Amino acid sequence: MAPHTEHTVKYTISAISPRLRPRNAAKLPPQQPRLKHCRSGSAKLLRLLDLIQPETPEDLSAELGRAGRAGRSIELFGNHSKNAMAGPVTAGVVRISTKNLNQVVQYEPKDLTISVRAGIRYADLSSILAANGQMIPLDGAYDQHATVGGMVAANISGSRRRGYGTARDWVIGMQFATMDGKLVQSGGMVVKNVAGLDMGKLMIGSFGTLAAITTVNFKLAPIPAATITVVSPMEDASKAFHLAADSLRGALNPVAVDVLNPQLASLLGLEPLHTLVLAYAGNAAVVERTIREFSSRNGVQILRGQQETDFWAAVRNITPHHLDANSKGTVSRVSVPLKGAEKAMGTLSVPCLAHAGSGVLRAWFQNAPAAAAWVATATQQGARGVVEFSPNSAKSPESLWPAPGGDFEIMKQVKHMFDPQGLLNQGRLYGRI
User: Fold this and answer.
1) To pair with 265 at 20 to 30 A between CA atoms, which of 6, 36, 299, 400?
2) What CATH number did the domain enclosing 184 receive?
3) Torsion-angle region of 430 (φ positive above 0: left; ψ -120 to 50: alpha; else: beta)
């Protein structure tokens, strides 16, 4: 495959603030209509024209049931922070936001568990947990603006996936509302629960096409006593990936193993070289051993404290910044075997990040055709891939998700089981469901 060459906009770490507001965040119309309260049975709802913001899970389930019986299509979302992600939702007759479902239901710090409504912002939840030295170690694009339900429904993950896993590893229970107006409970508040089928896992990564998540129960992790990040620029891509593989077999066990290509390194204000980035977390002994192992190597930069925090904030905000700066900006994601990451990155001349510990690569393009072409070529070679973020004008099922895989028929059957009329978030799952 011939390399894709693109014009890029250079930015530095300081320019990508976690406070950056995504261009796709939900906004009120220029002329704000009058808010009014109305009653649905005994449930009080806050309505803004056609926008419904339920205040309880019972309100939400009643609205879904009412729409289902009437055959009305539904657009379901939280904060609309990831509106450019995945497929275009067919305009719904009913629009429902879960952002008013934003309460902490139950928090047991000593048990390392918490239950929250789906509309609470992930950033706010993280602040609550940090006060007790705890965390849910998810990260990724828009994590400062997204709701918990949105993070889970989109199965957002980033660099720390290597060390901590994804939402599937941290969700221990869930409540969701179905299209027939029922509330279903799956799992509980117990970390190890093997009773019955965990239907809540079906909601993770479903983009709200099966049911509406109302409540999520998480297990928690303690915030590490110390963290450190090692940035190693090098001329040779093969050396970067070789050292990444060595780190996975090492005794220190990094929580993030990323390789940046020269284009992405330059955008982040680093030398325009292939760059290996390793993040470690643990106690002071881990940090001191990391410093001993890497401080003597030429060109290696050790990041700690605010400098480290700013670097990872910049990485998380690459996608929001890219989409804000480019009206046709597009992001593609492919998954390959670990040994195939170098080859997949080598076909590109646009910014690319390889999560070398999980085999997930992301690339940032200036236009959708180039992004779709990279995904199509990768899938033809056995990878799995999607166009993750793109303008609505460029969204088609064939380009967004060219090869759904052999389990796609099962996915369609599950969709029919939960939503037989196909009313909920039509097209949201990369245009296919």
Assistant:
1) 400
2) 3.30.465.10
3) left
